[in-house]
Specification:
mainly alpha; yeast vps74-n-term truncation variant fold; two-stranded antiparallel ribbon; 10 helices; about 55% helix; membrane; golgi apparatus
Length: about 210
């Protein structure tokens, strides 16, 4: 019997950022940039890419079972054959919103999300995604809390996801209020230390600056 693969970093990002009460998935602002970083982090921990500083320096066949990461790797690998391998910042931009749909579809297919068809103001159709069950993100948040407070003993997947929360400005959403203050402080060094998290922070900062200048 084939065992189901573990949740990927992009999947866990979506789950942990859902509203804790009702489980509604919220992807505001630059969330797609953080999700792009999560796809890159999945490839990194799976051994599909190597990273030095701001650049992807090596590509390998993807051994994981995440079709989103495998598809992104194929596109980045082809680009790398034609020119200098892309910087992490460029990779985050290239992935962009392309990962959102496949990640949501994967979670829905595995029964971790439900989809509701709704209309904004009764006119514009849209889909609302809800985590099933709503408490699914709490276990992930507990692991990330432990990773932030004891990073030396944390699993690399948890370190990468924790760093992305800090870099993407999502730490307060997952660890709100005074009770989460110690975790938010502990997350900041991971956001500064990990190359992919730093790339996400640079891209989101650049997006914000461009929006403000417009």
């Amino acid at each position: 019997m084939t065992q189901p693969y573990a949740r990927t970093i992009p999947e866990e990002l979506v789950l942990v950022c859902a509203e804790p009460a009702g489980g509604v998935v919220r992807m505001r602002g630059g969330f797609h940039r953080v999700l792009a970083g999560a796809v890159l982090a999945e490839m990194l921990v799976g051994g599909a890419i190597a990273v030095e500083g701001r650049h992807i320096t090596q590509y390998q066949p993807f051994a994981g079972q995440d079709p989103v990461a495998a598809g992104v790797l194929a596109r980045l690998g082809e680009a790398g054959k034609r020119r200098r391998p892309p910087s992490l910042d460029l990779a985050v931009r290239r992935i962009g919103r392309d990962a959102v749909g496949p990640v949501l579809a994967s979670l829905t297919a595995r029964g971790l999300l439900s989809t509701e068809r709704r209309r904004f103001l009764g006119l514009v159709p849209y889909r609302r995604h809800r985590v099933v069950p709503p408490a699914a993100g709490q276990e992930i948040a507990a692991r990330l809390r432990a990773a932030a407070l004891s990073p030396a003993t944390a699993a690399e997947r948890d370190r990468q996801l924790a760093g992305l929360l800090a870099a993407g400005g999502l730490a307060r959403q997952v660890f709100p209020g005074p009770a989460g203050a110690d975790v938010r402080r502990a997350l900041r060094p991971l956001g500064r230390e990990l190359p992919i998290a730093r790339a996400v922070q640079r891209v989101t900062s650049s997006d914000a600056a461009a929006a403000n200048s417009g």
